[in-house]
């Protein structure tokens, strides 16, 4: 069906998006034909000097006509609105159990890191038929993660996490582009998404140089950056213990309650004065400028792993 567009449909999302696109195309095409057809017909029929009847339409008929086309248009638009928004909403939240991969964008490259720590630059290997959830942030300016074959695109922002998910349905190599002008070499900021069969992906992953996995890297940073000086159980400083905090509701000193997710952890590290945990003094220093996005992702992964250990106990 997409031969004429020569853009492969390589994800579940691509199929939905294309169906919407084709329906809109057919509807607009039909409208164009109808309107131009009528213009032509009337131009000929009522040309100057023709003998066609020109009086007003019978009253009753004109009413029915009007109600008919108003209702038809209304229903068509209501249907389109419902269809497009339901497709859009389902593309927002990643299904639980999706494979998580971290992406850091910078001028001018894509750095990706798999759950076991394997890293890639301007490339991303993913398994076929499995939901993949990308957690993305930018080290400098705004970029945008765009895979045309998957019909997915999402801005990648500095100082804030964004995410996107997809499920590849075809093996092969598909281009990854930056879709937000981000400086001189923006057009060179390209990568490849390599979709492999699940067993091939598993084999590929084990063949990669181990790399520290994110949580282990975070654990090292936690000590190297001095976080443990305050947050370790043995510390004499009055600071909250971080095991189990991830995913929990945190009570703040100004009475608000906030869920400890990735964004909250990031804010806690970069802008600790913004959300003060109830019962503690605002003595935590800001690490803005001291940690890059990759390091914050590692620290977050570490804090998350603490929560999981707690659950497993
Ligand atoms: C000088 C001591 C100190 C250091 C160093 C420190 N923190 Fe904190 N941290 C605190 C205190 C006190 C709080 C609670 C008050 C607040 O929210 O600011 C806190 C709060 C937090 C919270 C929110 C916890 C919750 O229960 O909601 C996180 C997450 C956190 N710190 C992570 C870190 C990380 C990661 C580092 C290292 C990069 C670090 N902290 C370094 C003292 C410290
Ligand atoms: Cu870019």
Would you write up a description of this structure?
The chain folds into three domains: 3-47 and 56-90; 99-207, Sandwich (Immunoglobulin-like); 214-312, Cytochrome Bc1 Complex, Chain D, domain 2. Helix content is 39%, strand content 21%. It is built from seven helices and twelve strands. Strands 3-2-1-5-8 form a five-stranded mixed sheet, with helices on one face. The longest helix has 34 residues, at 12-45. It is elongated and about 100 Å long. Bound molecules: heme C and copper (II) ion. Heme C (HEC) is lined by residues 225-227, 229-231, 237, 239-240, 242, 245, 250, 260, 265, 268-269, 272, 276-277, 280-284, 287, 299, 303.
Number of strands: 12
Radius of gyration: 28 Å
What is the CATH H-level superfamily of the largest domain?
Cupredoxins -  blue copper proteins
Assign a percent range to the helix content: 25-40%
Describe the strand arrangement of the main beta sheet, using strand numbers.
3-2-1-5-8
The level-1 CATH class of the largest domain? Mainly Beta
Nearest-integer average pLDDT = 86
Shape: elongated
Structural class per helix/strand content?
alpha+beta
- Second-tier CATH architecture of the largest domain: Sandwich
The rounded distance between the terminal residues' Cα atoms is 53 Å
Ions, cofactors and other ligands present here are: heme C, copper (II) ion
Brief overview, please?
39% of the residues lie in helices and 21% in strands.
